[in-house]
Amino acid sequence: MRDLDSRRLQSLLDRFARVRLLVVGDVVLDEYVWGDVDRVSPEAPVPVVHVRNETVVLGGAANVARNATALGASVAVCSALGDDPRGRQVVGLLEDLGVDPDGLILVPGRPTTRKTRVIARSQQVVRFDRETLDPLPADAGRKLQRAVERALGSVDGVVIEDYGKGVLSRRVAAAIMRRARADGVPVAVDPKNDVAPYRGAALLKPNLRETETLSGLPIANRSQLARAVRRLRRKIDGGAVVVTRGAEGMTCFEDDGDGVDVRTVAREVFDVQGAGDTTIAALVLALRAGASLLEAAIIANAAAGVVVAKVGTATASIDEVRELLPAAIAAAREAT
């Protein structure tokens, strides 16, 4: 850990622009209603929000694409959206990022997943979710598979964002994994409810709570964490696992040992929304740029440290990561 080369990590950031990623999974439209609260409603014991502004940004798998683009990479996205005004809005926002819309499937009668957050004085007051968890119709699932197959030939790696919103059924996910393995394209998975379809993944990135759920084992100490990760690694045929742990950084497992803790730099946290998307985007970009898993984790910690200091679904620019990287390296060294 103390042999970390700061200049090498900075040079890895320079290589992000040469990487092309494919992001597959559940896309979310994140809506924000910004306002102030200075009184309680006379009708009920709830705050009255005086709305000042409203914004819309890409979330879910599209936020991974947004983060990877902000870090300088080229990105393609494959997903299924509702054939509705919000779905077409997502397509337009992705096109604005320079993402080819050919991999986006519009499904009649299916709502585009939308999360509306009301923010007052930098605090979230309430959130409204409009979505379906139903799996895609069979025809839409086949179209998604074909879109992924077309994209695989021109990418360096795949990120699968499975938020459990129905885009990635077990059958569709397993078919995508088989094709990626056949084409020799490494796949990183951010799982929600299931890892069984992702056999052969090069990297799994659950948080601590998801690690408990996915492994079916309780985690109250380090040995239990290592045991749970060993079970997950068996399920994906031995790929690496990075467990994110919030303010404590992450723990990296490349074998069946106890893992390596990678502490993160202390930051004032305003919002953790989307930090996991930033983390996996930076992890995979760093790995595809030639980083070791430890180096990639330090870079990802720096990127996540940037976004948690912002309010809303945010991104980290390559310059912001570069600026925070020395502190992230120092935090990782101190943990040792």
What do these coordinates show?
This protein is α/β, with parallel strands linked by helices and 336 residues long. The chain has a single domain, classed as 3-Layer(aba) Sandwich (UDP-N-acetylmuramoyl-L-alanine:D-glutamate ligase). The chain is 38% helix and 25% strand. The protein contains 10 helices and 13 strands. Helix 1 (6-14) runs antiparallel to helix 10 and helix 9 packs across helix 10 (318-335). The mean pLDDT is 92.
Rg result: 20 Å
**Tally of distinct domains:** 1
Q: What's the tally of helices? A: 10
Structural class, judged by helices and strands? alpha/beta
Low-confidence stretches: none
Fraction of helical residues:
25-40%
Instruction: Using the 3D structure, state the CATH architecture.
Output: 3-Layer(aba) Sandwich
Which descriptor suits the 3D outline? globular
Separation of the first and last Cα atoms: 7 Å
